[in-house]
Amino acid sequence: MFIVENYGLAIALCVITMLCWGSWANTTKLTTKTWRFELFYWDYGWGILISVLLLAFTLGSNGSAGRPFLADFNQADTSSLLSALAGGIIFNLANILLVAAINIAGMSVAFPVGIGIALVLGVLVNYISNPQGDPMLIFGGVALIALAIILNARAYQKLQKNSATKVTQKGLILSVVSGCLMGLFYKYVADSMAPDFSAPVAGKLTPYTALVVFAVGVVASSFLFNTIQMKKPFTGTPVSFSDYFKGKFKDHLVGILGGLIWCIGMSFNILASGKASPAISYGLGQGATVVAAIWGIYIWKEFAMAPKGTKPLLNLMLLLYIAGLTLLILSK
After folding, report:
1. Which residues pair with 193 in a beta bridge?
2. Which residues pair with 205 in a beta bridge?
3. pLDDT value at position 107?
């Protein structure tokens, strides 16, 4: 199987993760106006599963390193499989809440708040589990990112005061809950794998097997989480499964594309974690917040109606994020 063998390549893959994780949500804006995000989410999940299966039977089944996908799956112990599966279930609940928050509050709010909290919590949890890198630089970077989250929340408050429709707090609350859950899922996936990808451990998973089991957890749990969301949506009227099958080909394709983009980021991030450490790899990947905020602020104009004084807050928020991510890169 293909593995990452040097730190420079690991950082490059984390940067690609950042771009993918910060951009996939744009696909929710490319569907037709009648296509609800609850329906979009089914195709998003299938896109993730299809992507990891393709990787598992190509990069994960060829080469001299590690174990081929099928052989690795057959030797895996129950605890490793359940750990990767739990990671997929926790991520899925967090991500459904995040997509709902994007629908209500916009990308420039949901991502910096939700994913920012996930970054802080995720780095802390993964560092405690697998301490690698300079803790002063790691937690210094996390502190700067935490400050950026506070500034973004303040900018959102300013936008609310200036809004004629008085945006509700629901989007912000969903972002916070999503972030708390999102900060936990990665540890379960990391725990299912051997620390050194080039030296397989009996019972533990290779990155490719872990990703497949993770994706199964995402799709399987959608039949519970997304079905509930369809019947009792956060906004709008309920939708049915018959509505899903009435969707246009473009709508289904866009959902699969969203899953593909996110999954490329996740796959590269997991592969990079063997060299960069789970804490650093996850922290850098969640720099997606900067990418998403740029999309929301400058492309989708989500703060176009904000009062004076908001733009400097947003610019400072982005600078703090970038500074925090730089410290994470330098920590190892």
Report:
1. 205
2. 193
3. 64
> What are the phi and psi torsion angles at 200 (to 5°)?
-60, 145
Amino acid letter, residue 44: Y
Give yes or no for a contact between 244 and 113, defined as CB atoms under 8 angstroms apart: no
Structure-model confidence comparison of residues 316 and 290, the more confident one: 316
First to last CA, the chain: 25
Question: How long is the chain?
Answer: 332
Check if the beta carbon of residue 213 is closer than 8 Å to that of residue 192: yes
Average pLDDT, the chain: 88
Tens of pLDDT, residue by residue over 18-35, are: 999 989 888 988 888 889
Residues 310-325 have pLDDT tens digits of: 888 888 988 998 898 8
Q: CA separation (Å) from 120 to 93, 114, 148, 202, 283? A: 19, 10, 11, 32, 8
What span, in angstroms and rounded, lies between the C-alpha atoms of 21 and 297? 17
